[in-house]
């Protein structure tokens, strides 16, 4: 696996790349991609880092696994490529966005404009075998992405972490809540959203409120049109 990650992150993470667990992970991913169809495409595995540079990082949105159907995953949590039907969780994210900020429901589900403004859309596991959800879990990715969260917590201040659902909430222990803002809610999946744990969380406006307390110029333009 080629670790094509932006230089702004390399300074903080290069020691991770030398650890035995990461070398084993890289070998596993290389083997999987050579024998099976996997997502996202190899050049997009580190897209979250390449679109959101470390020095520009303002917000972290944690996901779990990449989408595992053809054409969906693009290396950013919850995001899909242009022209791809919006998965159910993304539909609910956009419904809450419209309800919270009154912005139009986006045509494209590609969240790269958020990433380019400093939103790290980080999945706990960065790769998956086609049509096999969770197939690359517990191979080392979680150790790496936990190290990413700890690094952000240590090296940055006033980052807004959005923890959606039980899995993401478990990562709170990695974050120094004296230095950072943590907003929690249910997951945007239909199961959670339909039980009333997602809609009305107003995380988009709350995030901008928190960012504006530090610097009004740092707020995120959440519109995608």
UniProtKB/TrEMBL annotation:
GO MF, one example: uracil DNA N-glycosylase activity
Coarse class of the protein's main subcellular location: cytoplasm
Residues forming coiled coils: none
Cell compartments where the protein resides: Cytoplasm
Full protein name: Uracil-DNA glycosylase
Highest taxon of source: Bacteria
SUPFAM superfamilies: Uracil-DNA glycosylase-like
Gene that produces this protein: ung
Enzyme Commission designation: 3.2.2.27
GO BP term, pick one: base-excision repair, AP site formation via deaminated base removal
PROSITE patterns referenced in this protein's UniProt entry, alphabetically: U_DNA_GLYCOSYLASE
Protein family (similarity comment): Belongs to the uracil-DNA glycosylase (UDG) superfamily. UNG family.
Organism: Winogradskyella sediminis
Ubl conjugation among keywords: no
